[in-house]
């Protein structure tokens, strides 16, 4: 019989976050989707039959109070999925504004760090042998011109994953990452319609010749957070159709 866990998914109103929340809810877990967009957070929670919270992962005070509120209502968080991130800001090395890079790093690196730190503190205090799953990207290992700011942030997320994994292992807390290649979210579908030259160029880099579905990413997160991955920590699992092989 599967044990019900309290699962917090940040960026839960987005395409990947919504799929992740749906996967954990289907397993029977108590799922809380957190997003800084209040309306989208509540609409997503209502649509999935889970719980919604407003949360800015770059605001340390809000994180502390938000985690305390979740723990008071649902018990200790046993699974954290750090999905929230900034993907839409890009630019070449010669053109990207320093302020834009700062925004990317604040969200993708500092936000992931703060959520990991504050959640892990509560896991340790509660004696919870929990699991943390970060959303990384194969871009942290395979560069694409014009996307270096985002990719640098995801390389940092991979390093943060290993850092947290080795320090939290004595507490029984596992920390891993899912590293997708291009994912067929609503935003990506709108920007690169099927059959468009840009879409075909991306798919040409992927041995399996297609983008990942959001469900592919969610399945990896569910696996890494589950008992069948009980001896896996500190890894960044590519979900890329083989793109890193090219």
What can you see in these coordinates?
The chain is α/β, with parallel strands linked by helices and 246 residues long. It has a single domain (6-238), classed as NAD(P)-binding Rossmann-like Domain (Rossmann fold). 46% of the residues lie in helices and 14% in strands. The chain contains 8 helices and 7 strands, in the order βαβαβαβαβαβαααβ. Helix 1 crosses helix 8 and helix 4 (98-126) runs parallel beside helix 5. The longest helix has 29 residues, at 98-126. The protein is globular.
Topology record:
Elements: E1 6-10, H1 15-27, E2 30-35, H2 38-48, E3 51-54, H3 60-74, E4 79-82, H4 98-126, E5 131-135, H5 148-168, E6 174-180, H6 186-191, H7 197-203, H8 214-224, E7 236-239
Parallel strand pairs: 1-2, 1-4, 2-3, 4-5, 5-6, 6-7
Helix pairs in contact: 1-8, 3-4, 4-5
The average pLDDT score comes to 96
What's the oligomerization state?
single chain
CATH architectural arrangement? 3-Layer(aba) Sandwich
Which residues form runs of ≥5 with pLDDT under 50?
A: none
Helix tally equals 8
**CATH homologous superfamily label:** NAD(P)-binding Rossmann-like Domain
Spatially, the strands of the biggest sheet line up as: 3-2-1-4-5-6-7
| Helix-strand sequence | EHEHEHEHEHEHHHE
What does the largest sheet look like? 7 strands, parallel
Offer a concise description of the structure:
The chain is of the alpha/beta class and 246 residues long. 46% of the residues lie in helices and 14% in strands. It has a single domain (6-238), classed as NAD(P)-binding Rossmann-like Domain (Rossmann fold).
